[in-house]
Amino acid sequence: MSGVALTSLLLGLTTGTAFAQETGGLGEPHPWQMGLQEAATPVMDYIVWFHGYVMWFIVPITLFVMALLLYVIFRFNKNANPVPSKVTHNTLIEIIWTVGPILVLVLIALPSFKLLYFEEVIPKADLTIKATASQWSWDYEYPDNGDFTFTSTMRRDEDKVKAEGKPWLLAVDNEMVVPVNKTVVVQVTATDVIHAFSVNSFGVKIDAIPGRLNETWFKATREGWYYGQCSQLCGHDHAFMPISVHVVSQEDFDKWAASKKSALNGDSQNKVASAAAIVQ
User: Fold this and answer.
1) Nearest to residue 258, comparing CAs of 237, 275, 241?
2) Any signal peptide, and if so, which residues (predicted)?
3) Strands 184-190 and 127-134, how do they pair?
């Protein structure tokens, strides 16, 4: 955070949202990216705003403390001040440096509580998906659309992935597909070790813990491809466990769900066709 804050300051103290839109990109990271990824959900919109809001406190306080340290170093060194002061306290200053930080913390805490409430209180779902993490893949189950399940793993055909314009090490063979402007509740668990389901542009990150079912949610407001990764060290292939979410129209989602259910037909879940071949 602090590195991003300093960068924001040097680039003109732009707001968090504007800064993210200029440098963050939508759905995936980009070379030399310094800001947050561009928001694609209401939660991420608030996260980006809150980040910029907090920086208006952190940056001035950092500069003030640095200036104060420099002043003390040069004003009260042995050469400039050979006779040291014997003042031991100052009531006004002590009140200021006690009350001031309290006010700053209150101003930061109030919107942070709102953000936590926004993230943790799950609204009524239009679609529920169960994401089960394993070393090193994701199983996605759609109980509301025929109760089918399929496995998503990272694609290994680097040349073909790049030729398709998809990000290498983030593209998968079977992506999660969701409709735009719908509340999607994701139930997250794991089969072996602790993993984490994380999609940056959605403002989503939640641990996948064996024997426990965690919940998160998002409402994507823009169609497109969004990428994330497992964000907990889960073994030697931790870096090769991406998450790919394809946000489409409701009509295209219905077609995709019907084709997925038909493709399963009681067969192995790994034989389900990629959504890219169905939703163009």
Assistant:
1) 275
2) 1-20
3) parallel
Q: What is the pTM of this model?
A: 0.78
For residues 27 and 240, the model is more confident at 240
Specify the domain boundaries for CATH 2.60.40.420 within the chain. 127-277
Indicate the residue type of 175. E
3-class DSSP state of 150 = strand
CA angle 22, 118, 233 (to 5 degrees): 70
**Torsion sign over Cα 22, 28, 32, 34:** positive
Query: What average pLDDT does the segment 27-49 reach?
Result: 88
- For residue 120, what is the enclosing H or E element? helix 91-120
C-alpha–C-alpha distance, residues 142 and 260, integer Å: 10
Task: Give which of 86, 85, 81 is closest to 71, Cα–Cα.
Answer: 81
- Which fold does the domain 127-277 belong to in CATH? Immunoglobulin-like (2.60.40)
CA 256 to chain centre: 26
Give the pLDDT confidence score for residue 165 in this predicted structure. Answer: 85
Q: Pairing relation of β-strands 204-208 and 224-230?
A: unpaired
Please state, as a whole number, how many other Cβ atoms lie within 10 Å of the Cβ of residue 79. 6
E strand or H helix at 104? helix 91-120
pLDDT recorded at residue 25: 60
CB 5 within 8 Å of CB 58: yes
- Residue 5: closest CA among 91, 63, 45, 44: 63
Residues 6+ apart with CB under 8 A from 267: none
% of the chain residues with pLDDT over 90: 58
Calculate helix-pair angle for 42-75, 2-10, nearest 10 degrees. Answer: 80
